[in-house]
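Page 42, continued from yesterday. The earlier attempt failed because a stray header line got pasted into the input along with the sequence. Redoing it now with the clean sequence only.
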Amino acid sequence: MRHIVDFTDRNGYRALRLTQSALNLDSFSLYTRAGFVPRHAYQDMMIAVPPGGMRQTAPGRDRVRDATTADIPAIAALEMSVSGISREQDYRLAIDNPHGFWSASVYEGDGGSVDGFLISCGHPAMNMVGPGFMRTVEQASALILRELDRHRGRSPVFLVPVDRPALVRLMYDWGARNVELHFCQVRGEFQPFAGINMPMFLMETA
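This time it went through. Structure tokens are written below.
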């Protein structure tokens, strides 16, 4: 951690951001002592996806499609506007899927714009939906439904912002249960999210 903190300070980065368990007080103390401040909270939720797939529907579901490499510039611009960061190498990894367990979807808006993006990982040791970012709850629900359906017969975990009660309520209606809590912690400047940010325990390299 000291190496990363020194690297960001030495190279003039305005902030260093991480996603950290709210229940692990040892790591919480480690990061806060290093100057990280909790800025956002997430409910870790889990849904048991039936073997036949998700039976729910979501407005805008017909606007969700597989992401392609041609979408990467628009995805990067969207994340920059929502979250203040951009991670093109991470998007490309999920879209190209060289390991065979990544998937990625986009929410296509009017005129072909990319208004939402969500990755999921189907590795046996990392069954999780995220990271992702989108502008609205409708876009989030449609993307989450699409990616959950890829995990048939499994129980993926995903992080929902606590300040989006309509999305949290919808996930409960779909059968989600809480399994943990996480904080977005920032050392330095924090740019409030201009939309919905769904982090992941991997690929948080910004």
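Notes: The mean pLDDT is 94.
Reminder to self: strip header lines before submitting.
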